Amino acid sequence: MRTTVEAYSLRNAAALVQESSTKRGNLSVQSGKISAGKAAGPEIDLGGSSFLYPALINIHDHFRGNYVPQVGPNGNAFYINWSPWDNDLKASPVYKERANITVEQMYFLSSYKNLFSGVATANDHFPHEINEPFLPRLPIRVIGEYTLAHECSSFDLKWGDGIEIEHKRAVERNWPFITHLEEGFDPESQDGIGILERLGCLDGHDVFIHCIGFSDEDIAKTAKAGASISWCPASNMLMFNVTCKIRKFLEAGVNVCLGTDSTHTGSANLLSEMKFARKVFRDMYGTELPAKTLYRMVTANPAKAFRMQDRTGSLDTGKSADLLVLKAIHDDPYEALAKAEPSDIRLLTLEGVPLLVEEALAEPFRELLAKGYETVKVGGRKVHVRGTPASLYRDVRKAIGFDKKLDYLPFEP
C-alpha cells in the first residue's frame, strides 16, 4: 500500500503521544514509515489544536459477528459459559436477519466498525480458512500472523489443528497463540490455565480472551508466563454480569489489552469500549482507571501481544506510520483519547496512507482521494474514507429490506 504522496509532515501538533510521555511537535512520514528527519513533501498544519497518537489496535473482534442488536440472556439470568449464548444467538431473529448479508459484506462492515473508531490494526478471531479470502482486501490491517484455538475445553468449536499443534506453530513462527480462556464458571471452563499447563502450552506467546474465571493463582501464573490478556468488559457484563479481576491483572504486571468482541455482545466500537471499561473499573473499585493505562491497552500492549512491537503501537522512528490525529477535546491527551468520539477523528493512516481524513487536512492527498475513496459526513464534517463505506451501507440495507441503523457506522449513506 503506497500513497502518491511518498513523504509529508504533520506539523504543530499540540502533543505527540508516546507510550509514556508527550511532547509538542512535528512528525514526518517517508515511504510509509515514521522518519527521523524532516520530510521533503508537503506539510500538514494541525494548528496546535490536535493530538497525534499511534493508530489504535483492537486485540479481539469477530468480524462475522458485527451486527446488531445484542443477544444476551433472558430476564435476570446470566450464562454459565459461552455455549448457551451461542444457542440463543442462532435461534434469534437478528441471526436470521443477518443471514441476508454475505460473509464478504460482514467483513467489510467490521473493518469500518474499527476504522471509524481510530483502529488501523485488529484481529479477527476466526480460523484462517474462514477469513483468509477477505483480509487482504480490507481497508485496515487485520492480522493473519496468528495461531488459535476457540477455547480450551471439550465443548469449544474445534478451531485450528488442536491446542498443542497450534501453540507449537506459534512458537516456531514467533506468532501469538490466541484463545478464549475461562469464559465461564463451570469446572471445566475454570480449569483453562491448568489445561494449558498440563499441555506445556503456557508461555509468552499466549493471548487469553475474557479470563473471567481466573483465580488469583491463575493470574499469578499468567504473569509469570509472560502471557497477555484481552479484556472485553462490555461483552462480559452482558453475558455474565461480571468481568475479570482487572485490577489484580494490572497489579501483577500482566500485559492487559482492550478488545471489543463482536457487537452481538460488545460495544459499538473501541472508543465506546474504552468508556465502558472506565465505568466498570470505577463501579468495581471506586477509583478511576488512569487514562494513560487505558491508552497503553489499545496501542503498545496489543502490539506486544501480537509480537508486532517492532512495527507498530508507538510513534518511534522507523515504525509503520500508523497514525491517529484527534481534536484536542481535553487538556490532557490521554483523557482526550479516553473521551473521544468518531467525530473527533481528523486523520487515520495505515503505513502513511489515509484511511480517513477530514476535508480540512485533505489537500496533500487529492490525487489519491480521487479514486478508491468515498466521502461521508461524520458529526457534520466531510471526511474521505478509504474504500466504499456508503455504498456498502446502502447495499446492506437493500439486502435486509429496510434502513437498518448500524451504530458503528457514524453516518447516513
Keywords:
about 425 residues, alpha/beta, Urease, subunit C, domain 1, TIM Barrel, 2 domains, ten-stranded mixed β-sheet, five-stranded parallel β-sheet, 15 helices, about 30% helix
Task: Describe the overall structure.
The protein is an alpha/beta fold and 413 residues long. The chain has 2 domains: 7-55 and 314-387, Urease, subunit C, domain 1, CATH 2.30.40.10; 57-305, TIM Barrel (Alpha-Beta Barrel), CATH 3.20.20. Helix content is 31%, strand content 23%. The chain has helices at residues 82-90, 93-98, 103-115, 128-131, 163-173, 192-199, 216-225, 233-240, 246-251, 270-285, 291-297, 300-305, 333-338, 366-369, 389-400; strands at 7-17, 22-30, 33-35, 43-45, 50-54, 56-61, 119-124, 141-142, 147-151, 177-181, 206-210, 228-231, 255-258, 323-327, 345-350, 353-358, 373-378, 381-386. Helix 3 (103-115) crosses helix 15 (389-400). It is globular. The model has no long low-confidence stretch (mean pLDDT 96).
